Amino acid sequence: MNILKFITAGSVDDGKSTLIGRLLYDTHSILDDQLEAIQKASKKNQDGSIDLAILTDGLKAEREQGITIDVAYKYFQTEKRKFIIADAPGHIQYTRNMITGASNSELIIILIDARKGVIEQTKRHSFLAKILDLKKVLVCINKMDMVDYQEATYEQIKADYLALADRLGLKNVDFIPVSALFGDNIVQHSNKLAWYEGATLLEYLESIDFVEDKPQPWRFPVQWVIRPQTDDLHDYRGYAGRVLGDGLKVGEEVLILPGGQRSHIKALEFDQKPLENGVDGQSLVIHLADDIDVSRGDVLVSASNPAHVERNFEATLCWFDQKPLSDNQTYYFQNHTAIHKVKITDMHYKYDVNTQEKNACDTIQLNDIAKVSIKAANDVVFDLNQAISQNARGILIDPRTNLTIGAVLIDSI
Predict the structure, then answer these.
(1) 219-302 has CATH 2.40.30.10 classification
(2) What tens digit of pLDDT does each residue of 10-33 get?
(3) CA neighbours closer than 13 Å in the CB half-sphere of residue 235
(4) Is 2.40.30.10 the CATH number for 308-412?
């Protein structure tokens, strides 16, 4: 059973939290004590309805204001699949929270209020989905009950969004009309939307499959070197980590980067059992044919299709800190388990996330998204975001506070 990781995004009061709550409620994925707490909190509703948004709006400020502030993660499963849901805040001031939640997602569900259509927040979140190179965009046109379930309204919003997607270069876009409040097209098909012949939201999530245009070469960032040095395992040396990409197999020639040594894969191991192949996302242990000095932070790559090893590169940067970026400050850049001292040597431009325009800048502040040049003190192993996005991402850390202050997507050399 594979796992689908997705994020919901949309403007304030578009119904993101209610949609997730409805999905969990209608799939019987809510624990009894949670349901009892929701029912108690919903007693003030005169119509006796349950406020399903409470499931994800866990912060007191969220419940008081009726908005999502933090990224809330929910987990559930059906007979066909397991799911990890990230409920992202819609307000512009929480752009950094949305990017954090989306960075580990494969699919984004963008909610649009059927009464409002495509608005600035829709454009912002669609732009971020493009930057993060998410594999699929699902547009849920919500609150169809507020527009009498009119097909014409749905088709107009669909046409407007397709025009936006074309401008942004978003290719994999699907649409579902829903009413999260009443459960129309969430788990069950709705007679009120009889003109819609597609899948419900749950059917879509259970069946969606991501097929790469071409298999991505594998990468293996080393998280830990295993050397028990016991009597039974005196010569044991294994390298633990998680596989990125496809094609990892016993016998393949590998490069150890950034050093550049070569070897072959002698064995693959999971839970002390041998494997012949490793698949994308799988955590395992690699054994090499040669006794080579490999450390935490090194990256094992396919010798036939290696990664880049550079000290200078350009990246898209989303700034998380209350203090603006300083081009005189030395920061830490962490990608996987490797940490490098870096400086921002140039600020090329900032994006206007509403219009997608590029504007000249001399400062980068909280929630800004900008194109920058970065210089590292030692070699960095990476791929470009448009090639292998999983190996193009990292974070900036302030060495004075140890706080994460930015997200980095490497675009070019």
Answers:
(1) yes
(2) 877 778 888 888 898 888 887 666
(3) 4
(4) yes
- Alpha carbon distances (Å) from 298 to 14, 237, 401: 44, 15, 26
- Backbone φ and ψ for 299, nearest 5 degrees, come out as -130, 125
What pTM did the predictor assign? 0.84
CB 373, CB 345: distance < 8 Å: yes
Q: How far apart are CA 86 and CA 90, in angstroms?
A: 12
Token code pair at residue 327: 């081009």
Structure tokens at 318: 């989303």
Residues 185-190: contacts with CB within 8 Å, 24+ apart?
186/19, 186/22, 186/23, 186/26, 187/22, 187/23, 187/26, 187/27, 188/26, 190/149
Domain segments of the chain: what residues? 3-207, 219-302, 308-412
CATH number for the segment(s) 3-207: 3.40.50.300
pLDDT digits (tens, 9 = 90+) for 307-356: 999 999 999 999 999 999 998 999 999 999 999 999 999 999 999 877 88
